[in-house]
Specification:
Layout: H1 6-19, H2 34-45, H3 52-60, H4 63-66, H5 71-88, H6 97-107, H7 113-132, H8 140-155, H9 162-180
Helix pairs in contact: 1-3, 2-3, 2-7, 3-5, 3-7, 6-8, 7-8, 7-9, 8-9
The structure holds NADPH dihydro-nicotinamide-adenine-dinucleotide phosphate (NDP) and zinc ion (ZN).
Length: 187
């Protein structure tokens, strides 16, 4: 920790933008880099985070999981602390998807405080995407199931920032309302 190092944060943004440059989010439209930017922006604006490593790791949080980036490459560029935070936010893609989903729920409460902040911000942004820019092939049921799973993961992430916890609850309610209106109401 220490003073906010803007140069490191911009280096992380530049690195992440290059790694995600060919990717779109699952709505098929949004540039992928918009997502890590949103996660980092939420941490700065809502959680008032001014820790360089947390913000840099938020910008980099999907590079290992979703681009070919190795932990070694991250370590060479950003050091052990930022790399460690990114790895705490990275699923093991060798495992079957159902197991990865289960492990996120089981492991959430064991994450470091800084990784918990990044992960809850990630879930808030993903719920926002599920509401506003969902993958076009997802049924309403699948979108509702995503909310339910995210709630279980976030149960293990709470307590680091009251404003983020409250924003997650708000988004979850908004999502449930948006996805159940006009369907006869599931809630
Ligand atoms: P996926 O893991 O396949 O997709 C969600 C992830 O994709 C997000 O966590 C996010 O991760 C990333 N993402 C990229 N673009 C978007 C976007 N536009 N909107 C939202 N997320 C985006 O989904 P799940 O496997 O978690 O499926 C959700 C739920 O649906 C699960 O609970 C599962 O049980 C259920 N399911 C239902 C099926 C059905 O047919 N009914 C089939 C399969 C699953 P990141 O931040 O890392 O980019
Ligand atoms: Zn993410």
């Amino acid at each position: 920790m220490g003073d906010f190092d803007t140069a490191v944060v911009f280096a992380a943004l530049k690195f992440s933008a290059a790694k995600h440059r060919t990717q779109k989010r699952k709505d098929g439209e949004s540039p992928y880099i918009n997502h890590p930017i949103e996660v980092a922006e939420l941490l700065v604006r809502v959680a008032q985070v001014r820790d360089t490593e947390t913000i840099a790791a938020a910008l980099l949080h999907d590079t290992v999981e979703d681009t070919g980036t190795s932990p070694e490459e991250l370590r060479e560029n950003f050091g052990d602390q930022i790399t460690g935070l990114v790895l705490e936010c990275t699923d093991d893609k060798h495992l079957p998807k159902v197991e990865r989903k289960r492990l996120q729920v089981v492991n959430a409460s064991h994450k470091s405080p800084r990784a918990k902040l990044i992960k809850i911000s990630d879930k808030i942004c993903n719920i926002n995407d599920i509401i506003n820019t969902p993958p076009p092939d997802w049924s309403l049921q699948r979108r509702v199931e995503y909310l339910e799973w995210a709630e279980k993961v976030v149960a293990g992430l709470r307590g680091g920032c009251a404003e983020l916890d409250a924003l997650f609850d708000h988004k979850l309610r908004e999502g449930r309302t948006a996805l159940t209106v006009g369907t006869g109401g599931i809630c």
